Amino acid sequence: MKISIRGSKIDITDAMKEYATEKLKKLEKYVESPEDISATVMVKIPNHLHKVEITIPMKSVILRAEEEQEDFYAAIDVLIDKLERQIRKNKTRLQTKKIKEAKEFAFDYIESIPEEEDTKILKRKRVEVKPMHEEEAILQMELLGHQFYLYKDADTNQATVVYKRKDGNYGIIEAE
Hints:
Double Stranded RNA Binding Domain; globular
């Protein structure tokens, strides 16, 4: 696995690089061809906490997790657990859907891990997607008390999702 570690307004020490690399190597057992995978670790210190984000793009999925801790090493430990949980949680779905690219996961190894409770779709909802501008969509989302809102962009006429980010700002996802 190729690992890239970057810091925003922080110098990444050799000890930090070694620790992150050692921990990320543990995820290689879940992947068929670890030499084809690259992981990006981003470290920030927005206040007194270390915010660490790990992104591992693969052919069929993108594994991503972020954590804020007072200690960089504790954040890495929590993130590795989160990423392992993501792989285990999605294992059954990947196998049942027979996704062709799912060959990149080593399912034989994952099956030896105790199964977590499967998630189920409990509700299906149909909504009318109305054309509107971003500001209207944000207002609608806030009025409904939701974390996201689907609408049709009035300018581009494309399906768009506005969502509330953890930092309190908003994000937009546009369909291609």
